[in-house]
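Sanity check

After download, print the first record. It should look like this:
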Amino acid sequence: MKWKLIPKRELSLSGVSIKNIVLLIGFLLTLNLLYPVPFQAKFSFKIGDIAPKDIIAPHAFYVKKSKKELHEEKEEAEKNVFFVLRQDKKQPRIVKKEAENFFKQLEEIRWGKETFSNKRAKLIELESSLEKKEIGFLLLRNYKPVKDSLLKLLDEVLKQGVIAEKSKIEGSVVVILGKEKPRSIGEFLSFDALPKIFKSRATRMFPKNNTAINTIVLLANSFVKPNLSTDLPETLERRERAATQIAPTKGTVSKGEMIVRAHDIVTPEVIEKLQSFPKKTGISGISVSIGRNILYILAIFLLYLSLYFFNPSLLDDFWKLFLLVLLMFIVMGISSLFILSKLSLYLVPIALFGILTSLLLGTIVGVLGIIVLTILISIYSGGGFEVVTLCLFAGIVSVLASNNVKKPSDFYKPALLIGGAYILTALGMETMKLSSGISLFKSLGYALVGGIGNSFLAFGLLPFFEHGFKITTPITLLEYANPDHPILTDLSKYAPGTYHHSMTVATLAEQGARAVGANPLLARVGAYYHDIGKLKKPDYFIENQRGTNPHTKLNPELNARIIISHVREGVERASREKLPGEIIDIIREHHGTTLVKFFYTKAELAKKEVNELDFRYPGPLPHTKESAIVMLADSIEAAIRSIPDQSPSRIKGIVGDIIKGKVEDGQLSKVNLSIEELKKLEQSFLPVLIGIFHQRIEYEKSTYKESNKEFKNKKNFS
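Expected structure tokens:
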């Protein structure tokens, strides 16, 4: 079987409804009216004044430090930054090498064949700091003990550390760059003080040998170089960094906190808080308003974008979108009362929104709405962790828990689950905050009231929103699925054939809806009522006829008009009985603009010119999957019931032909049903139809003991 491609609905941001734009802009303006940026009057109090009224913080803010406090703290922070020294790790090796080279050349001079005068001249040239006695000592005496002592002394001094300009260092503690361990400045040697240190240590090495002492001192002064230098740029940079890390504030004032009570004395602390309060009369007030509205716009855009991708049909229904915005506004308004009046956070009615949205608009819309509503509530409440946690946890649980509510007696189940979510959230947050036992039990009590109370409030308000916005929930549909409903009772009594036909169509429609992800309950209940218009003239429909066919007395045009009229009469009856709008739509659309082919063909045979429109249903075409599924199930059931050969292969052929015919006739052009979904519908219809219209086996009369006349003529049994 070949399928005609049905184009899927394409979404386009350029096609945004003007109504929707106005609605969302109105929501943004309402948010600003509901939670305006507070404009604070100027305070001119002095210490010792009497406050004329209570002054309460309209929002949280930081208490600023005075200029003097900041200056003192920065100075202190800079003082606490240790002076930085840079170490030259190569210097000890260089000094040692220079000393060793000197003694190597000394050795060459000593063993040279020149005169003593020439040797002395070369040594002076080699080391100009040496004097006559020291030169003679090095050229004539055993200098090796001096060499060893000198190298040892140089090594000790450089290991200890020699600073070039120790006097320029501020403070008594320093750090060496890269090591960062605080060191006392006294641990290091000053380059200026080295001669005295050399003499002192050389005297201990060579007591009473002035020549050796002077030689060591002169050579050490010549060879030694500072291996530690001051790094002033790094020190200044660290001090500047420390100064910038000083917090400009010294505490916070919470939203709703009493700054000063009426008739109390204004203290220095009060003055500090009032001076720290953001002045909302200038650019800062505009900044707060702009910042808040940017977040509002982002949240609203997130809502639109989420619906655009996950539930685009809601964007096409202005009143459903209005309901979503209205529910958000109601919950935000109630939440603000609890937050501003300092009542418990656990009374926030996020569950009210979750339950109503889930039942009225669907689970996906409920979850998306909870996420956006959490953002909006956190914006005006200061973004506390507790608010975000409660709204997300309890909100999403409320959406999912109410998803399977089918009748009023099921209300207690989600109420218990939601109450549990509130309580567990409260337990987790209060335990984390190390709340006292009394505070913990109070919070758990509020959470219990908030969770269960909001749940029953939501279920109590549900009928008002259902009737006000003409939305049909599963709870309402189940009421109309009751076979004792007066319309169904009339159908079974006055049009039994139509009644049984409707029950069969309902079974088919329910299975088909499950196969393509439509609403099975709506499809089933819609099928129950789709033919109630036949109650006005039940005998004109073949399933209710018992021998006499009134159509034989009328012309084809009138016959077709009677058949077609059952749709209009069904809509009128449904409207009088106040059936849900979705069911009325199915009644109105279940034939679309289909041609009443039997009477049209009959009319064509009777005369040459026939207006086809006189033999077509007026429509409209099905615009929902459920309506289209009922159309297909209705046509298929009627066709199979009318044929003698009801074998599985014949049933399969008829199902395929009817679906193909509806597609080619354009009856499904307004519905987003893909080729794959149409195949799924065909596959879901077949088992039901084969089960209902299975071939029956003929038995001999003698096989059964018939106890009355009703069974004497019976040949076939299921």
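If your output differs, re-run the checksum step. Summary of this record's structure: Confidence is low (pLDDT under 50) at residues 1-15, 697-718.
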